[in-house]
Design brief:
It comes from Deefgea tanakiae. The protein is 49% helix and 19% strand. With 290 residues, it is of the alpha/beta class. Helix 5 runs parallel beside helix 7. Ligand C2E binds next to strand 2, helix 4, helix 5 and strand 6.
Length: 290
Amino acid sequence: FFAKRDRESSVLYDPSREENRLSQFTLLGDLREALSENHLVVYYQPKINVSTGLVGAAEALVRWQHPSRGWISPGLFIPFAEKTGKLRGITEWVLCEVLRQQVEWQKINVNLRISVNVGVSDVEDAQFVDFVEEQLSKAGSAANLCLEITETGVMHKPDAMLQNLARLRRLGVKLSIDDFGTGYSSFAYLAKMPVNELKIDQVFVMSMNSTFESVSIVRSMIEIGHILGLKVVAEGVETIGIWQALAVMGCDEVQGYLIAKPMASQVLLDWLAEGPHQPAELTPPSMSNF
Ligand code: C2E
Ligand code: MG
Ligand code: MG
Ligand code: MG
């Protein structure tokens, strides 16, 4: 009897299944506490300009240092926060933290454009745009901000978002379409969206090693991005070979473990000081096989 019960409960609360480990009920309360007690931390992952080898930008990626559960990945708690309507608090906290950090960095002459990930529920709300405007005016000249919205999010309610996106652009905020290739973009809307950047999803980038189709798909995405006048970024670059192929195909920026993992702000500063970060193997491209 007990064995059976154990087995049943272990199905319900299998600790190896992360969504179960984070029992939804406690998580909501914990999330509130995470915000008020400063348990969230922003890590930064640099993006490298393929032609210059310089780091001009980084992506802010939030982490949750839970007092008893340890580090919790955003891939886990962001979708949960989104589902339960609690994303806004996190977005606003990350945004403020990033702007505060940029003001600090400016004092030591570090000027990086930082991308902050936002949800549809944020961008479709005019009050969120008001909030961004207010925070930007506080940060002043240090502010150098880009917002990343997933393709699925942008295409979910394109008409509703158009006005807010245009307002953000007028505030000097750059806009990026994240995880491109995983949603259902309408090219008509894509051309209409006031965005600056397109980020090719890592699924396509990572499989460039194994399938020719992926190489062709990535090449097409880069072309589409350029036709629309967008900067194209590849995320999930883990090998020199893929970096080289992307360079040959004219991709503008690369981001991935090959270059650096997301880092705490102090670690990022040390890493920047080590530069340059262009792999020595990346000599002028002479390959015709891509
Ligand atoms: P994303 O915005 O597409 O971010 C890229 C994810 O890929 C990050 O995972 C990053 O650490 C990871 N990554 C980058 N390069 C490589 C690589 O070469 N190899 C591999 N295997 N992974 C790589 P992370 O930090 O766990 O974030 C996961 C997702 O959580 C993000 O995907 C984003 O959608 C969401 N997220 C993270 N921080 C925030 C935030 O502050 N707000 C919102 N709304 N979402 C966030
Ligand atoms: Mg992103
Ligand atoms: Mg992405
Ligand atoms: Mg992603």
